[in-house]
Amino acid sequence: MNPKLLFWVPAALRMGLILAGVGVLWFMFGATSALVVATLAMAVLVFVQLGYLYQLSDWLDDPQSAKLPDGWGAWTNIFSRLYKLRRDDEKNQAELTEWLARFRQAMHLLPDGVVIMDDVLFLEWCNPAAEQHLGLTHERDKGMRVTNLVRSPDFMDYIILGRYDQPLTLSFRERKLIVHIIPFENRRQILVTHDATETERIEEMRRDFIANASHELRTPLTVIVGFLEIAASEGLDPATRAAHLKLMTEQGHRMQHLIEDMLTLSRLESVDYPMRPERVDIVKLMGQVQRDARALSAGKHEITMDVSGPDVMGSTEELHSAFGNLASNAVRYTPAGGKIHLSWAEGPSGIKFKVEDTGIGISPEHISRLTERFYRVDKSRSRETQGTGLGLAIVKHVLLRHGGTLQIKSEAGKGSSFIVCLPKTAIVPKQPELQLG
Ligand code: ADP
Questions:
Q1: Pocket of ligand 1 (CB under 6 A)
Q2: Which class is domain 278-426?
Q3: What is the CATH number of domain 110-195?
Q4: pLDDT tens column, 55-94
């Protein structure tokens, strides 16, 4: 039924009943007594209404603790609607609080920084990522001007120019940040910061790699082209021609090695080339590594080997490449007459492949950089011995794929130890022995 009718019909009925009662009294006892009773009834009614008004005002002052009565007459409807309004309000409040908590949690987890500022750049709120990126502290810096907090001439210029349709790349507190400012509502702005330090580092590595690879390929190519030009000219005696051809072949091999190593590295880094672990026959693998090292040494070094550890699960091809690189480095950086020892043994922290040499050694300042691509301590020695500068980078990537680590101990002029440590989890479990009979 229409709520207005619900209000007016009972009120009219009650009024009609009172008037009828007064009419009956008038008829039975005369006008005076009817008026007295009517006045008394009106006074009672006024007091009841005042009582309800008082309780309503009490409730409005403190809706949480004061309680509303059920009410009488029209008040029943008013009070029940007020109750319903309060219940709806509480529900909305709870929903809003929950939503706000979820929003805050999302903002806390967001890797990008978010700063809410007013139209004149006074800080209102920021998330933890923004605190980290810009060195802000929400509690301390609230109400301060963001340009006074982020002290960078580039940031100032960006604000002054106001070209917010383009992002700003900002170098700030040893980070590379991509900064956006987005106006919202009427008088607020959001500043968003994205940390691009890692992306920038990878991009720089890629640029360096291309520059280094081009440089490495250009050197042998220049030699080959030079010789080809000489060979094209007339009057070259057969001995010189043969010497030139030999040098060109060497340079060709150098380019071939380089390209093979670059392809190996890119394959190791590729997600489309997952490792398929298999049982690696260590005795066979170590035998191959020793044979390759002896072939490279051509009898100039004493190469010994000791294999006592168990077989492991991994990629035979990749481990061959890693161990082979370490053994070939030992040969190439150890002067003739030196000693090289290869070993494979199980220790308390895992299984260790060790290559020890009595070679030229490495000064401490180089050790942490040896696994960088194209990093060489002695460029000319590396090139003379067909080095590509990628061997240890390949070792690093193979070990990453096998959960292993590389430890380098070296002293200039005395020799080096390269130790590969593979986790115990890589060990092939022993087969239970068959009980015969
Ligand atoms: P390269 O092809 O130049 O040998 P690597 O990545 O294998 O490249 O090695 C990087 C550098 O580390 C080498 O250029 C060399 O200076 C140094 N190095 C590697 N192994 C040894 C070693 N056993 N003794 C001395 N120096 C070494």
A1: 325, 329-330, 333, 357, 359-362, 370, 375-378, 382, 387-393, 416
A2: alpha beta
A3: 3.30.450.20
A4: 888 888 887 777 777 777 778 888 888 888 888 998 999 9
